[in-house]
Amino acid sequence: MKKYVGAIDQGTTSTRFMIFDRDGAVVASAQKEHKQIYPKPGWVEHDALEIWRRTQSVMREALKSGGISAKEIVAVGATNQRETTVAWNPSTGEPICNALVWQDTRTDALCNALAKEGGQNRFRRKTGLPLATYFSGPKMRWILDNAAGAKAQAKKGKLIFGTIDSWLIWNLTGKHITDATNASRTMLMNLKTLHWDEEILRAMGVPRETLPTIKSSAEIYGEIQSGALKGVPLAGALGDQHAALFGQTCFQAGEAKNTYGTGCFLLMNTGEKIVQSKAGLLTTLAYQIGEQKAVYALEGSVAIAGALIQWLRDNLGLIEKSADAEALARTAKDNGGVYFVPAFSGLFAPYWKSDARGAIVGLTRYANKGHLARAALEATAYQTREALEAMEKDSGVKLRSLKADGGMVFNELLMQFQADILDVAVVRPKVAETTALGAAYAAGLAVGFWKDADELKKNWKRDKEWKPRMDEQRRAALYAAWKKAVTRTFDWIDS
């Protein structure tokens, strides 16, 4: 009987279940989107129960499509959109409100209030993170202050918090657990101790007893209690970007990857060393495998990448499906002087300006929908360059090539422009969905399906490489105009 490892990949717009063999190849998968809820400008929510139903559904469908039984799955790993926050009653399993998505900006006033003492970097020394609406701790505080009955239920022990990994682990195993990578994105975990920080919990107003137990990224959390995979060990969890770093086998300090998904996230492994950024990046936990020492990373976080293409599809109706963006962009030979800065959730790395909002600049009568589509694609490449420049400044490492993964890496126009604007080669692996692969690797290591990191490295194979072919003068002119466009988004929202 052949053996496989499964991975739940719960993302911002969809949930997927993928099954991998020993070579790290995909043998079956299923995927379903879930609803994006926008109650007010800047507010972004998900229905956590819908996400749980989607998770159960795609597990069943992937097994069926691959003709694989639960007995052939040795372990399941989970990876997830990270900072999205759920609050639920552990007795009933019912969320107290919709999940607050990582893109949500409603905690802006709370973050500003917390920053009055110690500034935006008040907790950065301990957490590696600036005070920003992005992270989960302020979202938990907002729920306590604003969701009906939340504080009273918390006092009675009838309210618990978690990021999406915790929500899924609880539903699958009945245990309130998170892994250290997801905990590192709450702004409540101390990077050195890997424990919830009591001082920050008091300042944030989040009760310790509402939080999950922090575990490593690769260990058996428990058996799945019901459904298509009943009895299979749930044995690994990583936040999506950490999982992609692991799936790309970036195990050595200085190795980096960029994931092109709903957002865009550049991570560089810094080994067992915590590197505090001076250039606007995040310091985060990369992964912790079992009882091994924790490994850290620098991260450049871009809020809106693939989400901008979805916006063109869903809000403007310029395209019917996301894949059409490339064809529309190719109807224009260049961007026509148009720049699209998608600061829909403020600006993340390296600016961290929550009062910024999106802008399209450089419009003339010449501009058409092809130029707009091209500007939307190019925005992801420009934002990646800003993150990469900050990373090189912090690390002192000059990247010679960039490992790329995620859904947008199949957009040939974007990948070539990315290589051009960075002036480095961009490399796509054979398995481009390395987020799910990383979760599978963690779970497989925990149960001995794979022996060690060296065995995983042998699975990594190059699929395609894009080399820069733009002259330096044009590269400099395009990037200078982008930097100017970014300044037009500053200070849009009054406190």
Keywords:
six-stranded mixed beta sheet, 16 helices, seven-stranded mixed beta sheet, globular, 33% helix, 22% strand, single chain, alpha/beta, 495 residues
Outline the structure in words.
Helix content is 33%, strand content 22%. By secondary structure, the protein is of the alpha/beta class. The strands form six sheets. The chain has a seven-stranded mixed beta sheet with strand order 15-16-14-13-19-20-21. It has a six-stranded mixed beta sheet with strand order 3-2-1-5-12-11, with helices on both faces. Strand 19, helix 13 (412-422) and strand 20 form a beta-alpha-beta unit. The radius of gyration is 21 Å and the shape is globular. The N and C termini lie far apart (62 Å).
Topology:
Layout: E1 4-10, E2 14-20, E3 26-33, E4 45-46, H1 48-66, E5 73-80, E6 85-88, E7 99-100, H2 108-115, H3 124-127, H4 136-146, H5 150-155, E8 160-163, H6 164-173, E9 177-179, H7 180-183, H8 198-204, E10 213-215, E11 218-223, E12 233-239, H9 240-247, E13 256-260, E14 264-271, E15 282-287, E16 295-302, H10 306-314, H11 324-329, E17 339-341, E18 359-361, H12 369-395, E19 401-405, H13 412-422, E20 425-429, H14 434-446, H15 453-457, E21 462-466, H16 472-487
Parallel strand pairs: 1-5, 5-12, 9-10, 13-19, 19-20
Antiparallel strand pairs: 1-2, 2-3, 4-7, 6-8, 11-12, 13-14, 14-16, 15-16, 17-18, 20-21
Helix pairs in contact: 9-14, 10-12, 12-13
